[in-house]
Automatic annotation (TrEMBL):
Membrane spanning stretches: 198-217
GO cellular component assignments: plasma membrane
Pfam annotation, one family: SURF1
Protein name: SURF1-like protein
Membrane topology label: Multi-pass membrane protein
Record family assignment: Belongs to the SURF1 family.
Superkingdom of the organism of origin: Bacteria
CDD domains found in the cross-reference section: SURF1
Localisation per UniProt entry: Cell membrane; Membrane
Length: 224
């Protein structure tokens, strides 16, 4: 009987060990991801600085900045859906400050406000530099006829608005009664699924253990 059980037992223990190790690996990755997100959160709300003369997308991603200038009426609209608000657009405007013209993500407007007039306004702004990763092989090309974009493609937006490829995502503004609701940068869009993956691997390990025990029980019954 023991000879008939040894191979299923070893196979079962090997499978359990592999699945448990994968679960533990995901727990380790979860700890690392949470530490990274905490670091990004702290960086986002840090003390703002002036706009850098040149910006590195890796080094200055999420850098808090402050500037005073003109939010121009030159803008494009990026289709977006916001939880509990529904479909609408991000308003990406050209922002002029200290002889420079950069991009400003002002935030959200409902679909029926897309063609409303938003005149140029002087404002003090605070926000974060960002280079969103929103483009893949399924992203449609902008519909320039209707001025509808489907992703924040910083270089393309800069070309369209004749600005530097530098995007500030608005957090605060001195505007009174701004027609646009800011959508500040946060870490909610950064995927962190490691806990779910760990639960999946541990569940599979428990299932594998149950199947192994059942198989050993069947072998034992047949040999009695």
């Amino acid at each position: 009987m023991l000879k008939r059980m040894i191979i299923p037992l070893l196979f079962g223990l090997g499978g359990i060990a592999i699945l448990v190790s994968l679960g533990l690996w995901q727990i380790q990755r979860l700890a690392g991801k949470e530490a990274m997100l905490a670091d990004i959160d702290a960086r986002i709300v840090g003390d703002p600085t002036e706009l850098p003369a040149t910006a590195d997308p890796e080094r200055e991603r999420y850098l808090p900045v402050a500037a005073t200038g003109t939010i121009t009426s030159d803008e494009v609209h990026v289709l977006v859906s916001v939880k509990r608000r529904g479909a609408g657009y991000r308003v990406i405007s050209a922002f002029e400050t200290d002889g420079r013209r950069v991009l400003l993500d002002r935030g959200f407007i409902p679909t029926d406000q897309k063609d409303a007039s938003r005149p140029a306004v002087e404002a003090e702004i605070m926000g974060n530099l960002h280079w969103p990763d929103e483009i893949d092989s399924y992203t449609p090309e902008p519909d320039t006829t209707r001025d509808i974009w489907f992703a924040r493609d910083v270089p393309a937006l800069a070309t369209a608005l004749e600005a530097e490829p530098l995007l500030i995502v608005l957090r605060e503004t001195s505007e009174m009664n701004s027609p646009v609701s800011p959508l500040p940068v946060d870490t909610s869009t950064i995927p962190n699924d490691h806990l779910q993956y760990a639960i999946t691997w541990f569940s599979l390990a428990a299932l594998w253990m149950g199947m192994t025990l059942y198989l050993l029980w069947r072998i034992r019954r047949r040999t009695i």
